[in-house]
Amino acid sequence: MKTILIYDGSFEGLLSTVFYIYEYQIDQFSVVKTEEYVANFFDKKEEIISNSNKANRVWKALSTKISANAKRKLYKAFLSELPGIENKICHFIQLAFASKYKIEKDFSNPTILEISKVVKMVDREKHRMDAFVRFRQTKDNIYFATIEPDFNVLPLNSDHFRERYADQKWIIYDVKRKYGLFYNLNTVTTITLEIDEAINNKQNELTFFSDTEVEFQQLWGNYFEHTNIKSRKNTSLHIKHVPKRYWKYLTEKKN
User: Fold this and answer.
1) 199 with 101, same domain?
2) How high is the mean pLDDT in each 10-residue block of the chain (255 residues)?
3) Can you give the C-alpha Rg of the chain in angstroms?
4) Which residues contact 44 (CB under 8 A, 6 or more apart)?
5) Is 152 in the same domain as 245?
6) DSSP labels for 119-158?
7) DSSP state, 11?
8) Which of 124, 143, 174 is where one domain is finished?
9) For the chain, how many structural domains are there in total?
10) Which residues constitute the domain of residue 8?
11) Distance CA 150, CA 131 (A)
12) What is the pTM of this model?
Protein backbone atom coordinates (compact mmCIF):
# COMPACT_ATOMS: atom_id res chain seq x y z
CA MET A 1 0.00 0.00 0.00
CA LYS A 2 1.28 3.42 -0.95
CA THR A 3 1.29 6.21 1.63
CA ILE A 4 0.16 9.62 0.41
CA LEU A 5 2.10 12.29 2.29
CA ILE A 6 0.20 15.57 2.31
CA TYR A 7 2.19 18.74 3.03
CA ASP A 8 1.48 22.48 3.11
CA GLY A 9 3.33 23.40 -0.09
CA SER A 10 6.30 25.11 1.58
CA PHE A 11 9.92 24.04 1.20
CA GLU A 12 10.10 23.62 4.97
CA GLY A 13 7.06 21.37 4.71
CA LEU A 14 8.73 19.26 2.04
CA LEU A 15 11.87 18.80 4.14
CA SER A 16 9.67 17.91 7.10
CA THR A 17 8.11 15.27 4.87
CA VAL A 18 11.56 13.85 4.10
CA PHE A 19 12.21 13.63 7.83
CA TYR A 20 8.91 11.77 8.26
CA ILE A 21 9.82 9.30 5.50
CA TYR A 22 13.01 8.34 7.33
CA GLU A 23 11.50 8.49 10.79
CA TYR A 24 8.82 5.95 9.88
CA GLN A 25 10.85 4.13 7.21
CA ILE A 26 8.26 4.57 4.48
CA ASP A 27 9.15 2.81 1.23
CA GLN A 28 6.19 3.43 -1.04
CA PHE A 29 4.98 7.02 -0.95
CA SER A 30 3.74 9.94 -2.98
CA VAL A 31 4.07 13.55 -1.84
CA VAL A 32 1.31 16.04 -2.70
CA LYS A 33 0.30 19.54 -1.66
CA THR A 34 -2.80 19.87 0.50
CA GLU A 35 -4.78 21.61 -2.25
CA GLU A 36 -3.87 18.92 -4.79
CA TYR A 37 -4.81 15.87 -2.73
CA VAL A 38 -7.58 13.68 -4.10
CA ALA A 39 -8.88 11.01 -1.72
CA ASN A 40 -9.07 7.36 -2.77
CA PHE A 41 -9.83 4.01 -1.09
CA PHE A 42 -6.59 2.27 -1.95
CA ASP A 43 -3.87 4.39 -0.36
CA LYS A 44 -3.10 5.40 3.17
CA LYS A 45 -2.75 9.13 3.82
CA GLU A 46 -0.69 11.08 6.32
CA GLU A 47 -0.79 14.84 6.83
CA ILE A 48 2.65 16.26 7.53
CA ILE A 49 2.97 19.24 9.86
CA SER A 50 5.82 21.58 8.97
CA ASN A 51 8.51 21.55 11.62
CA SER A 52 11.46 23.93 11.27
CA ASN A 53 13.69 21.84 13.54
CA LYS A 54 13.13 18.66 11.53
CA ALA A 55 13.49 20.52 8.24
CA ASN A 56 16.77 22.07 9.37
CA ARG A 57 18.11 18.67 10.41
CA VAL A 58 17.44 17.28 6.95
CA TRP A 59 18.96 20.33 5.26
CA LYS A 60 22.05 20.22 7.47
CA ALA A 61 22.51 16.47 6.94
CA LEU A 62 22.41 17.01 3.18
CA SER A 63 25.51 19.20 3.47
CA THR A 64 27.54 16.09 4.23
CA LYS A 65 26.27 14.37 1.07
CA ILE A 66 26.00 17.01 -1.65
CA SER A 67 27.51 20.42 -2.37
CA ALA A 68 25.96 23.76 -1.46
CA ASN A 69 25.31 24.32 -5.16
CA ALA A 70 23.43 21.02 -5.41
CA LYS A 71 21.31 21.98 -2.39
CA ARG A 72 20.44 25.26 -4.07
CA LYS A 73 19.45 23.35 -7.21
CA LEU A 74 17.04 21.25 -5.16
CA TYR A 75 15.43 24.47 -3.93
CA LYS A 76 15.20 25.80 -7.47
CA ALA A 77 13.61 22.55 -8.62
CA PHE A 78 11.04 22.94 -5.84
CA LEU A 79 10.23 26.46 -7.08
CA SER A 80 9.32 25.04 -10.48
CA GLU A 81 6.02 23.80 -8.98
CA LEU A 82 5.91 21.14 -11.70
CA PRO A 83 3.59 18.18 -11.05
CA GLY A 84 5.43 15.42 -9.19
CA ILE A 85 8.56 17.48 -8.54
CA GLU A 86 8.30 16.77 -4.80
CA ASN A 87 8.69 13.04 -5.44
CA LYS A 88 11.73 13.63 -7.64
CA ILE A 89 13.33 15.80 -4.96
CA CYS A 90 12.63 13.18 -2.28
CA HIS A 91 14.11 10.47 -4.52
CA PHE A 92 17.18 12.64 -5.15
CA ILE A 93 17.64 13.07 -1.39
CA GLN A 94 17.26 9.32 -0.83
CA LEU A 95 19.92 8.66 -3.45
CA ALA A 96 22.24 11.17 -1.79
CA PHE A 97 21.84 9.68 1.68
CA ALA A 98 22.25 6.12 0.41
CA SER A 99 25.43 6.75 -1.59
CA LYS A 100 29.00 6.82 -0.31
CA TYR A 101 29.82 9.34 -3.03
CA LYS A 102 28.32 12.63 -4.16
CA ILE A 103 25.68 11.75 -6.71
CA GLU A 104 24.80 15.24 -7.97
CA LYS A 105 26.62 14.85 -11.31
CA ASP A 106 25.56 11.31 -12.04
CA PHE A 107 23.38 12.25 -15.01
CA SER A 108 23.02 8.63 -16.00
CA ASN A 109 20.43 8.49 -13.23
CA PRO A 110 17.02 9.64 -14.59
CA THR A 111 16.06 11.49 -11.41
CA ILE A 112 19.29 13.48 -11.27
CA LEU A 113 19.06 14.28 -14.98
CA GLU A 114 15.45 15.41 -14.64
CA ILE A 115 16.26 17.67 -11.68
CA SER A 116 19.07 19.22 -13.71
CA LYS A 117 16.74 19.92 -16.65
CA VAL A 118 14.14 21.50 -14.39
CA VAL A 119 16.76 23.74 -12.75
CA LYS A 120 17.85 25.03 -16.16
CA MET A 121 14.24 25.92 -16.95
CA VAL A 122 13.87 27.75 -13.63
CA ASP A 123 17.16 29.61 -14.12
CA ARG A 124 16.03 30.71 -17.58
CA GLU A 125 12.78 32.06 -16.18
CA LYS A 126 14.62 33.82 -13.35
CA HIS A 127 16.90 35.64 -15.80
CA ARG A 128 13.91 36.62 -17.93
CA MET A 129 12.29 38.19 -14.90
CA ASP A 130 15.52 40.11 -14.22
CA ALA A 131 15.29 41.51 -17.74
CA PHE A 132 11.54 41.94 -18.23
CA VAL A 133 10.39 43.50 -14.95
CA ARG A 134 9.14 47.05 -15.59
CA PHE A 135 8.71 49.32 -12.58
CA ARG A 136 6.17 52.15 -12.48
CA GLN A 137 6.21 54.94 -9.91
CA THR A 138 3.05 55.03 -7.82
CA LYS A 139 1.49 58.11 -6.28
CA ASP A 140 3.07 56.97 -2.98
CA ASN A 141 6.53 57.14 -4.59
CA ILE A 142 6.99 53.38 -4.57
CA TYR A 143 8.19 51.67 -7.73
CA PHE A 144 5.75 48.89 -8.49
CA ALA A 145 5.89 45.97 -10.93
CA THR A 146 3.65 43.00 -11.58
CA ILE A 147 4.85 39.66 -12.93
CA GLU A 148 3.31 36.30 -13.73
CA PRO A 149 6.20 33.86 -14.31
CA ASP A 150 5.76 30.24 -15.28
CA PHE A 151 7.70 29.21 -12.18
CA ASN A 152 7.84 30.65 -8.67
CA VAL A 153 11.13 32.47 -9.28
CA LEU A 154 10.46 35.63 -7.25
CA PRO A 155 12.59 34.42 -4.28
CA LEU A 156 15.51 34.06 -6.72
CA ASN A 157 15.10 37.61 -8.05
CA SER A 158 15.37 39.32 -4.66
CA ASP A 159 19.16 39.86 -4.55
CA HIS A 160 19.32 41.13 -8.13
CA PHE A 161 16.77 43.90 -7.59
CA ARG A 162 17.96 44.78 -4.10
CA GLU A 163 21.46 45.42 -5.49
CA ARG A 164 20.35 47.13 -8.69
CA TYR A 165 17.68 49.37 -7.15
CA ALA A 166 19.13 49.95 -3.70
CA ASP A 167 18.19 53.66 -3.60
CA GLN A 168 14.44 53.36 -4.12
CA LYS A 169 11.49 51.62 -2.53
CA TRP A 170 10.00 48.95 -4.74
CA ILE A 171 7.45 46.16 -4.88
CA ILE A 172 7.48 43.24 -7.28
CA TYR A 173 4.19 41.37 -7.12
CA ASP A 174 3.46 37.93 -8.53
CA VAL A 175 -0.21 38.17 -9.51
CA LYS A 176 -0.39 34.43 -10.22
CA ARG A 177 0.76 33.36 -6.75
CA LYS A 178 -0.63 36.39 -4.95
CA TYR A 179 2.44 37.50 -3.04
CA GLY A 180 5.26 39.95 -3.58
CA LEU A 181 8.55 41.37 -2.37
CA PHE A 182 8.78 44.83 -0.80
CA TYR A 183 12.10 46.67 -0.44
CA ASN A 184 12.01 49.56 2.06
CA LEU A 185 15.60 50.79 1.44
CA ASN A 186 16.90 48.44 4.14
CA THR A 187 15.39 44.98 3.87
CA VAL A 188 13.27 42.89 1.54
CA THR A 189 10.11 41.40 3.02
CA THR A 190 7.38 39.15 1.65
CA ILE A 191 3.96 40.78 1.40
CA THR A 192 0.43 40.04 0.22
CA LEU A 193 -1.84 42.67 -1.28
CA GLU A 194 -5.32 43.08 -2.66
CA ILE A 195 -4.43 43.97 -6.24
CA ASP A 196 -7.06 45.71 -8.34
CA GLU A 197 -7.16 44.05 -11.76
CA ALA A 198 -7.45 47.50 -13.30
CA ILE A 199 -3.90 48.35 -12.26
CA ASN A 200 -2.54 47.05 -15.57
CA ASN A 201 -5.25 48.72 -17.63
CA LYS A 202 -3.75 51.60 -19.58
CA GLN A 203 -6.93 53.65 -19.19
CA ASN A 204 -6.59 53.61 -15.38
CA GLU A 205 -2.90 54.55 -15.12
CA LEU A 206 -3.50 57.96 -13.53
CA THR A 207 -5.51 56.32 -10.76
CA PHE A 208 -2.51 54.39 -9.47
CA PHE A 209 0.62 56.01 -10.91
CA SER A 210 2.16 59.47 -10.83
CA ASP A 211 1.65 61.94 -13.69
CA THR A 212 5.39 61.92 -14.35
CA GLU A 213 5.43 58.14 -14.58
CA VAL A 214 2.65 58.10 -17.16
CA GLU A 215 4.50 60.70 -19.22
CA PHE A 216 7.71 58.65 -19.08
CA GLN A 217 5.82 55.55 -20.18
CA GLN A 218 4.43 57.40 -23.17
CA LEU A 219 7.90 58.73 -24.07
CA TRP A 220 9.44 55.28 -23.78
CA GLY A 221 6.69 53.75 -25.90
CA ASN A 222 7.18 56.39 -28.59
CA TYR A 223 10.95 55.92 -28.52
CA PHE A 224 10.57 52.16 -28.87
CA GLU A 225 8.16 52.57 -31.79
CA HIS A 226 10.25 55.11 -33.69
CA THR A 227 13.59 53.33 -33.26
CA ASN A 228 12.10 50.09 -34.56
CA ILE A 229 13.28 49.45 -38.15
CA LYS A 230 10.22 47.94 -39.78
CA SER A 231 12.13 46.66 -42.82
CA ARG A 232 14.27 44.52 -40.52
CA LYS A 233 11.40 43.22 -38.43
CA ASN A 234 11.81 39.56 -37.46
CA THR A 235 8.78 38.58 -35.40
CA SER A 236 9.76 34.93 -34.86
CA LEU A 237 13.20 35.90 -33.52
CA HIS A 238 11.68 38.60 -31.33
CA ILE A 239 9.16 36.18 -29.82
CA LYS A 240 11.96 33.68 -29.21
CA HIS A 241 13.80 36.19 -27.00
CA VAL A 242 10.72 37.97 -25.62
CA PRO A 243 7.85 35.44 -25.45
CA LYS A 244 4.36 36.88 -25.84
CA ARG A 245 3.29 35.87 -22.35
CA TYR A 246 5.51 38.70 -20.98
CA TRP A 247 4.23 41.42 -23.29
CA LYS A 248 1.33 42.59 -21.14
CA TYR A 249 3.81 43.70 -18.45
CA LEU A 250 6.22 45.50 -20.80
CA THR A 251 5.78 49.27 -21.09
CA GLU A 252 7.00 49.32 -24.70
CA LYS A 253 4.25 46.84 -25.70
CA LYS A 254 1.36 48.92 -24.37
CA ASN A 255 1.37 51.69 -26.97
Assistant:
1) no
2) 94 98 96 91 92 98 97 98 97 96 95 98 95 87 91 96 95 94 96 75 60 55 56 60 64 57
3) 22
4) 1, 2, 3, 4
5) yes
6) HHHHHHHHHHHHHH---EEBTTS-EEEEE--SS--HHHHH
7) H
8) 124
9) 2
10) 3-124
11) 15
12) 0.85
